[in-house]
Amino acid sequence: MAAKHELIDTGTDKRYVRRDESGQFRHVVDQGKSLSADARHDAKTKVKPGQGDKGDR
Questions:
Q1: d(Cα 43, Cα 19) in Å, to the nearest integer?
Q2: pTM of the model
Q3: 25-30 and 6-9 beta bridge pairing
C-alpha cells in the first residue's frame, strides 16, 4: 500500500503530497484541483483512510 497523502499548508496555498522512502515528495497536487476533481467523479473503489485520492472511503 502506498504511503498516506498529507496536507501541506504553505500559508498561500494547500497541497496534498505523497513521499517516497527517502522522504522526498513523489506526488504533489493542489488541494483546489483535487477537491474539484472529486466533485466531478464517483469513485468505484473503496480505500482506507489517508488514501482518499485513490477512491472513496
A1: 23
A2: 0.50
A3: unpaired
